[in-house]
Structure formats: C-alpha cells, structure tokens
Specification:
- With 690 residues, this protein is mostly helical.
- It folds into 4 domains: 159 residues; 159 residues, Fumarate Reductase Iron-sulfur Protein, Chain B, domain 2, CATH 1.10.1060; 142 residues, Rossmann fold (3-Layer(aba) Sandwich); 114 residues, Rossmann fold.
- The protein contains 27 helices and 8 strands.
- A 4-stranded parallel β-sheet has the order 2-1-3-4.
- Strand 7, helix 26 and strand 8 form a beta-alpha-beta unit.
- The longest helix is centred in the first third of the chain and has 31 residues.
- The protein is elongated.
- About 1% of the residues have low confidence.
Amino acid sequence: MLVFLNFIAFLAVTGYAIYLVANLVYSRVTFIKLGKKSNLGRDTRQRVNEVLINVFGQKKLFKDKKSGFMHLILFYGFFIIQIGLIEIIIKGFITGYEFPFKAAHKYFTLMQEWTTFLMLCAVVYAFYRRYIEKLKRLQFKRDAKAAFVYIGLTTLTVSILLTLGFETIMLGHKPDFIHAPFSGVIATVFSGIGTAAGTVFFYVFWWVHLLSVLSFMVFVPQSKQAHELFALFNVFFKKTGPVGKLEKIDFEDEEIEEYGVGKIENFTRRQLIDLYACAECGRCTNMCPASETGKTLSPMNLIIKMRDHLTEKGAVVTSRNPWMPSYIFGSSASSPALTAGLAAGETAATVELPNLIGDVITEEEIWACTTCRNCEDQCPVANEHVDKIIDLRRYLVLTEGNMPHEATRYFQNIERQSNPWGINKKERIKWREGREDIVVPTVDEVEDFEYLFFVGSMGSYDNRSQKIAQSFAKIMNVAGVKFAILGNEERNSGDTARRMGNEFLFQQLCEENIANFQAYGVKKIVTICPHTYNTFKHEYPEFGLEAEVYHHTELIFKLIQEGQIKPMKEVQEAVAYHDSCYIGRYNDIYDIPRQILKSIPGVQVLEMERNREEAMCCGAGGGNMWVEETEGKRVNIERTEQALKLDPTMIGSNCPYCLTMMSDGTKAKEVEEQVKTMDIVEILEKSLVC
C-alpha cells in the first residue's frame, strides 16, 4: 500500500510539474512567434557546425577558462545524472532496482557518483566566483534567482548521494568504496541507524531529489536558466554569412507602415529567441566600452529588459489564463500595470502597455552603443545585440525623426555635401595637393588602373587623416601599383549613416557609389577606412557591387610579401598597437597589421591587455565619432590609458577614426609630445628608402 500511495503521489506531483513546464515553454514559444518571420538561408551544414562548436564544444565559454571548465562539467554532467535519475525514480517503487546491465552497472555507478560529486564542486566554485571572489561580470545583475540556482543544484546533487547512501543501509549492503565512494562514505557514517530508519531516510531524500528536480524544471523556462532550452536553437538559427551584416529595408514595400523597431513584436522571431537564450553571465556587459566607462547601456540588461517586456506583453496580447501566470517564481522586472491587468483577466485593449523605447529601453542606451560587437563576440549563446540597437535607432530616425542634434547635423551635411563637416564637395580632391612627391591620378586622368583608391571622407577632408592617405599613395607609387581615385565624384560610403539608423541615406549613397564604380569599370577597391572596407565588402554586394575589396593593410602586406615594398630604415619605436573593431571583430584581421609592424626594422610591437578579439573600441563607431558623449568617462580616454600603461613611444592604428580618437586621448592626457599616434602606413613609410 505504501508503495502504491508513493506511486500515486509521484504521478500527481510529476504530472502537474510537467504541465507547468509545458505551459511555460509553450508560452515562450508563443511570445517568440509574435515577432516577424525570419528569412533563413539554406545553410544547414554551417548551422550544424556552429552548434557542434559552440554548444557541444562550449568554445565561447572557454574565453574564461575557469568558468568554461566549470560549465563543461555542469553541461555534460547534466546528461549523465538524468540517466541516473530514471534509475533512482524506479528505485522508489522497486526496492533495490538496478538497470539490467549487471556486468557494467558498477562502472555506471562509479561514473554517476563522480559526475555528481564534480557537479557539486562546480556549483560550489560558481558560488565562490559570484559571492566570494565577486567576479566583476557577475555583479552586473544580482537577484534571488541566482541564489536559487545554487541552492537548487546543490540540493539536487547532494540528494542523489544521500538517496544512494541510505539505500545501501536500507538494503543491508556493505558500502562499495571503489565503485560508489561517496554514497559509501554516507552509508558508513550512518550505518548504525538500522534498516528501518535507513528506509525512511531513503524515501525522504528520494522525495527531496524528485522535488528539487521538478522545481528546477519549472524554474528553468522563467529564468536565466531558460538558456538551457533556447541556446541550442539560438545558435542554430543565428545569422550566417558576414558577422554584423545588417538587414536591408525595402523602401518600395508599400505595406511597411513604420521603419525600424518601435514595438517588441516588430523584431524578427530569430531576434526574439535571443531574449530567452540569454544566460545573464555578464560577459557582454563586462566587455562593453559604454558600460566600462559609466554609460547607462548594458548589453545584458538590454536583453533582460526586452525579454521581460516580451513575456509580460505577450501574456496580455495572447490572453493567457489569469490562473496560469507567465511567471511562477516572479519576473525580475515586472510591470505592475501588466501584472494587475493580467490577474484581472484583462486584455491588451484595457491594459496600459509600456513603450519599448522610453519606458523599457532609454534613448541614452540606444545611442551609447559603438557597434563594436565586443558583446556579441563574448556571448556564449550567440546573442546579437547590435542589430537590435540599430533597429531601434532606425525607428527613432526614420519613423519618429528623433535623434541627437549632432546626428541631425551629420545627416544634413552628408545629404548636402557628402561629408560629415558640410565642406564643399568640390574640395574632396584637394588632399592630394599636400605633397609634391606623390602622384595621385583621378579615373579621368589615366587610361587604366588596377585599384580604385576610395579615400573616404576622413582621408579627403580631415587634416590628420589626409596624411594617412598621402602615405598610402606614396607606398603605392613606390611599389608601382596602378591606381586612381574618383576625386570629386566620390561620395561618402554611408556606413556611419547606416549604423546611426538612417538606412534611407545609406541606400542612396550606396547606389550612387555603385553607379560610379560601374561607370569606370572598377574591379578592385582599396580603402584606408575599416568601416568603409566592411560595408563595401559585406553590404554593398546586396545592392549590386561586384568588385574585390581590400583594406590598405591587406594590400601593403601583399606588396611586402611580393618584394615590391622593402622596409629598410630603422624606426626605433615601441608601438602599442590598437585593433580596429571593423578590421578585427568584423573581419577577423589581426595578424596582418602586426606582421607589417614586425617587418619594419627597429619597431617593437607592444600588446595591450585587451587586444585582438577582446580589444576595446576607441569609441568612434556607430556614429559616436560625431555624437558628443554626455555620460561617464570618454571611451577614447579609457582606451588611451590602457595603451599608456605599456609606456610606448607611439600608439599605432589602422583606422582614421581610431587614430583621431587616440590622438585626442593623448592630448587630453597631455602626453602628445612624448607619445605619437600614427597609422601603420605612416610608420612603414618612414622605413622606405625612396
């Protein structure tokens, strides 16, 4: 009778828990489906490969090796103890039950016990990292749910060993310290209580284990642990192709009523999966230059706030049953209006819903992003933060006409003169007049050319960046490269306009530039600007560009390898090298600039603490070159200070924006006389025998 009652209770509790879990998961899937349909390419092999590498291989997690190893134990340990869970459950109904593979069962027991013990150690270490070591990235968000995870996993693992230990006493067996070392110790410690008491404790901890498992199951879909359910799908459905490539807006589609995203349901379903896949690990915020310098933007909090907003709004829009709330353990950022409305059985028509922009996400957060993608590079579940922020900007700029006044001025100058300063577009060609030792022909002045040198607005108008363009032209002259420029026919690339949300202006500039390229039969383009390089290489082809695109460091490296350029003179400089985001994280070019510097006699390359994939942004990306920082510390000052810790004689870069920001940084720190700032091409020119 006791076994029968135990079985009935098991069915009732487990059945209700499974119902709750199914309801909660179904609700999340329903909320995701509120979003727009996503256009996914037929690249299944690449998607499966991403899952193998980043889900089962845990690659991104090992950026922090300690946490990576800890998570690896928890990840694979979870699957092993689930097999053991089945056996433990059956033990509650069939005394002394074991899986029917007698010869191998003792080895299964050994694996189960060591896995459980290692999982317990991993949980203890995770607790230590958060509450004792106080790891910075784990302090960005602290709530009761994090503590519940540690308590739940500790209870779950300890109860396994206690259940098995008291089962040994209940059955009157001798402890097996070889194959069941941990439960064997427990059985030895409590051996004097007798089989009757052992039976009671067995069932007590059997239920403790079962209830901890079921409680955790119900907890998972409504917490950060939801990443256990959604991360695999998020990695599989993430955008493929060039990283950071933005979606095109079809301005000829008359059915589009508003541009960008002003409501949570206007994101695509693929984007909304991100929200539930977030593990709240803080890796993104820990590396964010805006967060690092005291801005309100936190990529992690951005995702969390949108997730809670989607859950709460989705509950109202889909008219969820009032007795089946979308949160059982409670939302981390509940809206009182929504909670009250939902409890009363109200609908979206009667509940005052908060605005995505303004109430949930502030404009300060939206404009603080530098689009550097450091957050995305760090994310272990493949969340994409930048495209969401740009979609929010698109709504502000294109639908509401709401933007910082500096952005308004920037767009006006680009529209009128095709450069950020509003300087007469007929002066675009004047940069080549600065030096008499270089020859820079326009496309009209030569019969044929191999490369079109797209100078860009910085190289054409900014006094400091003009020197970069001149040095690059000099190197091409020395190497005998046939090149030409568009001169006054050149237009702004439109990259910054696009990242600032003005997709319409970007597409206009894109079409004008491509028309020029086609008119002059351009087959190869080289540019000194990583932002231009990235948008030409990865985004212009969608609009019809058919040309090879090179960053100037790529061409220079090629010329050095082929012997057309030979650095000879010693340049005695200790160079702190700064990785540009749009060459580095966007295009995975890290070694080429370093190889160029190392080829120059006398140059010592110094690596900052944050370098390569983890390099910090200079602060200019995403239009922040043109929008004044009003919160916290200036990003370029922080990055300059990181460089100065190395005691360099020079800071080297490969981007006009970066060079400007680092130059401003050395001036602000009053070290511009001691620490020069130069582009790689300028340093190389010093080494040439001309």
